[in-house]
Amino acid sequence: MMLETLNQWDITLFEILNGIHADWADPLMQALSSRGLWVPGYMAIAWYLFRSKGWKDLLLFGIMTGLMVVLADQIASGIIKPWAQRFRPCQLEAGLDFVVHTVEGKCGGKYGFVSSHAANFFTMATLFSLRIPNKPWPWVFFLLACIAGYSRIYLGVHYPGDVLVGAMVGLCCASIGWGIYRKMQHIVGLT
Questions:
Q1: What tens digit of pLDDT does each residue of 46-59 get?
Q2: Could you tell me the residue range of the domain that residue 51 belongs to?
Q3: Confidence of residue 177 (pLDDT cuts 50, 70, 90)
Q4: Using one digit for the tens of pLDDT, what is the confidence trace for 142-174?
Q5: CB 23: neighbour CB atoms within 10 A?
Q6: Roughly how many angstroms between the first and final C-alpha of the chain, as a whole number?
Q7: How many domains does the chain fold into?
Q8: 147-186 burial string, b = 16+ CB within 10 Å, else e?
Q9: What CATH number is attached to the domain comprising 44?
């Protein structure tokens, strides 16, 4: 009963959020959902970390961030999606009784719970926030992760719950990664 209620709330919220769209926003949301768009930002963060802590710390942090993104992605796509088997809202099998707004008819894979994009973006936002804690950067990192998560709802490929649980996966993976990173800093003498 509780799961049915949560599912209905998720569908209702999706219908509202996905229903707010405009032709001019379609390419913008598609770009925000693209991983490639964010590369210049990652390069700027890497440059900042190199300048502030040196190449050894940048290498250690970069490896840990990469491993945790892979972990978050595998948990979302390799474990949870096949287990939960919740159809994406844009799939006919989802059985929604309203028109789902998609861009260029793109829908992605069959299952959407949980959002790998959200897991990945929130992993990075959390790690970047812990590594660069001075204001306003943590706010900026999490705002960008939220925008990327919203873009997935806008594009019709995820329910809000998919994004929310994906974000939680990302937060958990980043927490694990941060703990390992801090221990490794001590081991290799970077603290």
A1: 999 999 888 999 99
A2: 2-187
A3: very high
A4: 999 999 999 999 999 999 999 999 999 999 999
A5: 7
A6: 51
A7: 1
A8: ebbbbbbbbbbbbbbbbbbbbebbbbbbebbbeebeebbe
A9: 1.20.144
